[in-house]
Amino acid sequence: MKLRKTALIPLMLASLILLLLASACGSNNGGSGKNDGAAAAGNTGNNAPADANKPDETATNEPANEPAKTDEAPAELTYYYIVYDMPADQQAVEDAINAYIKPKINATVKLKPVMEAGYKDKINTMLAANESFDILWTSNWGGGDYDNKVAKGALLPLDDLLAKTPALKDAIPQVAWDDTRVDGKIYGVPNMQIAAKAEGFAIQKRFIDKYNIDVNGIKSQMDIEPVLKTIHDNEPDIIPIATTSNMFDFGRQYGYAAQGYKLGDPDYKIVDTVDKPEYKTFLDTMRRWYTSGYIYKDAATMKDDQLVSLLNTGKVAVEWNTTMKPGGEIDDKKRFGNNDVVYVRVSEPEFTGVRPTMNAISRTSKNPEKALEFLQLTSTDPTLFNLITFGIQDKHYTVVGDNTIRINQDGGYKGDQGWVFGNVLIGYLKEGQAPDTWERTKQLNETAKRPEVSGFNFNTEPYKTESVNIAAVSEQYGRALNTGAVDPAKVLPKYQEALKKAGVEKQTAEMQKQLDEWLKANGKK
C-alpha cells in the first residue's frame, strides 16, 4: 500500500472499517489505512488467517486469458482509482495498455485517476447519479469506504462471476477472498501485497548518523520523544514529526485489540477509544509535543496530499509508520525527498487482512464480465501489472537488474502505485530492494501473529446512520486532539458528549453484540 495512506477520519475508519496496511501500501499513508484515534469500537476488525498471500498451487504468473473472440464487440471499460500525484504521461500508458489487452480480452480501458483527497466525494457523486462505470478501487480506510458502498448496494457481488475467471480465483488464496466477504458474499478483488502489519517509526538516516541516535533504545511510541527534542533543538528548518493523528490507533500500542477490547479480557468488552484512560494520557503527551514545537503546526488541518508534498521536501525527520513492510525503506526514501530512512519497529507483525486495498465492480457496469477479466490480468499477468504500475520501459523506467528497475522521476509516470492495481508479488522490484523482497513479504504474511478474533468482521449496516454522525463529530474534534493542536482538558469532554449525541453508545452495543455472537459461534466464549 502506499500513502496512503489515512482520509484520516478516525471514527469514520472506526465506524466504517479500520485500516490496517496502509499503507499497507508502502507506508502508513494512504495504503496503510489510517485513523485519527476515534472510537476503537468502530473498528471493523478485518482480519484473516495468516496465509493470505500464499497463492494456490494452481496459480501462475503467465497471462491468464486466451485471445478474445474476434466476433465480440469490443468493450470499453472505465476504471477509477486514487493517486497522490497526477501522471503527466497518462495517455501514453493507457494507449500501451489497450494495445496489450485488446487482443487478450477484446476490451479497452479508460483510466480515471482521481487525487486521493477528492476520491470519496467523486465516487459517491457518480453513484448517486447512477452513472455507468466499471471498476473502482476500494478499501477499509479513507475514501475506499468498502463496507458503506456494499451496504448501499453500489458494488456488484462477484461470487458467480468468479466462476468465469478461474485463473483469478486460483491466483488469490481462499482465505483472502473470505476476508473480503460481507454477509457471505465477495464484493472485492484483493490486491495481493503485504497483509501483516507492524508499527514503528521511519527516521531519516542522516539525523540518526549526525546525532548518534541509538535506535535500539526506541521500544515504544514515547521513546521517540528525545529524538524529536534533539531535532527541534538543533535543526530549526526541520519538522521533527509531521503528524500524530493516527498514532493512538485504537489503542493497539496500549494493550487493546483493533476491535476495541483489552487484550486478555475474557469478556472481550469493547471500550470506545475516547473512554480509554490511556487515550487521555496519549492526548496529554501529544499536547506537550505540539506546544514544544515537535509536531507540525498545521497537522490538524493537513490533507493527505499536503502531507505527501511536505514529506517530499525532505524537511520532516520522523514519521509514524503503520506497515513496516519488507523493502519499504526504498519507497519511503523517495517520499522523504530522496533521503535514506531507517525503520524502527515498536510492535511485532500482526496479520491484518487484505481489505486495505481491493478493486471492485460497480453495480452500474455494463460489462462486468470484461471488467473482471481485466482484474484477472492485473493479478496474473506481470506484463500488464508492470505496465499499469510503472509505465513504459525505457521511457518511464529502466531495467537495471534481474526483475529490478529504476523509475525515471522525470518521465511523467512515477506514481509507483502497484498496491492499487493488483498483485505486487508478480511485479518488478525497485532499485535498492533486495532480490528476496517478495519472498520475505509472503513469509511475513504467512508467519505473522494472528489476532485473537482472526476472521471476524463487523457488519456496519445496523449502525450506518450512527457511523455517519460519528464521522462528522470525529472530523470536528478528533484530529485536532490527536495532533495536540487543542487542549484536551477543554476539548475532550466536548468530544465525548458529541459522540454520545451522535450515537456511539448504540454503535458500541451493536458491535459488542456481533462480536459476542461470533465468539460463541467459534467456541471462544
UniProtKB/TrEMBL annotation:
Residue segments, region Disordered: 36-71
Q: What keywords does the record list, in alphabetical order?
A: Signal
Report domain DUF3502 positions: 454-520
The residues the entry assigns to the signal sequence are: 1-22
Q: Name one Pfam family in it.
A: DUF3502
Biased amino acid composition, Low complexity: 36-52
Give yes or no: UniProt keyword Signal.
Answer: yes
Please identify the protein, giving its name as recorded: ABC transporter substrate-binding protein
Q: Source species, please?
A: Paenibacillus artemisiicola
